[in-house]
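hey so i finaly got around to running the thing on Gene Transfer Agent FAD/FMN-containing dehydrogenase from hydrothermal vent metagenome. pasting the sequence first so u can double check i didnt mess up the copy paste, my clipboard has been acting weird all day
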Amino acid sequence: MRQISPELKNHISGDLASMVTCWILTRRDGVRLAFTTHDKAIDFENLTFRPTNSFLPSAISSTNSLNVDNLAVHALLSSDGLTEKDIRAGLFDHGRISIFQVNWQDLSQGKLFIRSGWLGEFTLKDQNFTVEIRGLTQKLQQTIGDVYSPECRADLGGGDCHVNMEEFSVLGVITGGVGPDSFEDISRTEVDGWYDYGLVRFLRGANAGHRTEVRSFTGGNFILYDMPPEPMMVGDIYLVFAGCDKRSESCKNKFRNFQNYQGETAIPGTDSLYNYPGLK
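ok and heres what it spat out for the 3d tokens, dont ask me to read them lol
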């Protein structure tokens, strides 16, 4: 049950209510953005909620079961912190959101809590975006614990991996072959596939600070999984980390780290179901 002040409850029960919706976005870098459907800015809880008329929440679905609660928000891209560049750069990925209502004529009455959760999948189209909001029950849908697998479950360079990524990273400069999701560095002499599934981080240029994964690396040519938010240019400086395909052979020969391999190489495959006595 939602707890609200008696004053706010009486106001909502009246014939004429002056309720507006407010929402707070907290990006993964800690920046907080506050918006309201009111036509004027509202100062509430040490934040200034800027007016926006493009906030369109869908119907909220909540149940008393363990099903995932659903809510989607539709809004226009604007210069008030909701830019396509920041969304494509991943600054809002897994960010926090809190939605509530207040009486704009008397903010001392408190707020009516609506929903809080995490930002899910973004959809961009024609200067608009739609984002799914995942509630607390989303956490109950996640697998807790490890699952047996012939592939490694650890993240390269993570706590269970123990690979020193400084030994498998290099600085580079884009020298040509620039496309929407690709570039070339003629100084790269590593074997083909060395940076497949690796991570590239731009240090200088329009995409400084942006990170993305490498789809493939061949003869100094990088093809990325995602197109950076800004066009890449010759002379941009980047830092690239070698990639891991999760196979035991790569762990042993490429990273010399088989003692920390987090997979089970001897797990029987599905073909073992047919290897019963008398088959051969």
